[in-house]
Amino acid sequence: MYKKSEQLLDRALKSIPLASQTFSKSLTQYPRGVSPFFIEKGKGARVWDVDGNEYVDFVNALAAVTLGYCDKDIDGAVQEQMKSGVTFSLPHKLEMEVAEKLIQIIPCAEKVRFAKNGTDATSAAVRIARAYTGKEHIAVCGYHGWQDWYIGSTTRDLGVPQSVKELTHKFEYNNIESLEKIFQEQELACVIMEPMNIEYPKNGFLKGVKELAHKNNALFILDETVTGFRYSLGGAQELFGVMPDLATFGKGMTNGYPLSAVVGSNEVMQKVEDIFFSGTFGGETLSLAAASKIIDKYKKEQVIEHFSEVGSYLLEKLNQLINDKNLSDIFWTSGHPSWSFLHIKEQEKYDTFEIKTFFLQEMFKRGMLTLGSHNISFSHTKEIVDQLLDVYTEVLPMVKENIKNKTLLENIQGDILQPLFTVR
Q1: 417 lies in a domain?
Q2: What are phi and psi of 144, to 5 degrees?
Q3: Would 80 be classed as within a structural domain?
Q4: What is the predicted pLDDT for the residue at 424?
Q5: Are residues 235 and 97 in the same domain?
Q6: Is the pTM of this model over 0.85?
Q7: In terms of residue numbers, what domain contains 174?
Q8: In what order do the strands lie in the sheet with 111-115?
Q9: 392 vs 362: CA distance, rounded Å
Q10: Do the domain assignments include residue 310?
């Protein structure tokens, strides 16, 4: 089933570490022997691997594809801009036009600066906060990219200087006391956090974080790399009614083209003129053309409402399946309808990595590309979700049966996933 993928993997490993540019697209997440490793093409909600296997894709380029692959409107805008050029010796007016559109839709945005990856934007936001406050320590909650200032706070910290690690402090989501403790011990430049991933904010948590930050003369930054262009047109800050000093956006703002942004108040964003945050490709026009068109399409076609409707349908039916088949001792769900998760609980005889390997093996066999999350796109319909649910109806009881009969490991046909650092 994956003969060509395996051959290309062996070839790629000779020239590329992990055979991928992205950690979460590599064999650290896809078990060897039971997974595809290279995609040939995509259209709408579907992709085809290099062996010709077809999948419904619920990974969607790690949530970067929000409309569907090869969306004709977005790609058409890109192709039209390509006729005039991609990167120039001076700014292109698209930089200004897209910045103005973002200011119109994002509550906290009064000024905008573009980059390429989410890490670019979050790192710039932290640098702005340090320059603005004159302080160095920061508090983090969630996943914020690969740069030293964040990744040094995880177990994947090899190569990060100890002096850098000591400047970053982690707090727990929905636990305001864990942040209060950090403020008692440190002078913080900022608090940077994902507004939501698995859990909904409880008891005014986000507003409480903002108040605590401002009380201690620190900036409040929301990392909306995933939640932006997914939870609401103006991001999770609009959905939850909390205004950050700075926010970062990426992923879904271009349906797969490389673009990210730092946005915020006039006063704070003016510090960008004093720090150094500059890149040759920040004003690259193809991604900006995609961003401009995607904002128009979101407004015109009620994309956000579609995410909510289809994603809520999926969660409702999946939770019903888990209850009806008595699977709650192994599986549970969480998250927002547009970005939800199927979790696996460790069992007495098997750990979550062993169970997940078998789960992925059986999902891939049946044409569902997933890593355990549901990154909903505009191309996902209820009919497509029903296809996923049909596969879940078959696979989830299989998992339970193999655990019960103690036959899980002997039915895994490839390598077992290895424990890695947890990003959230």
Answers
A1: no
A2: -130, 20
A3: no
A4: 65
A5: yes
A6: yes
A7: 87-283
A8: 111-115, 260-264, 246-249, 219-224, 188-193, 137-141, 168-170
A9: 10
A10: yes
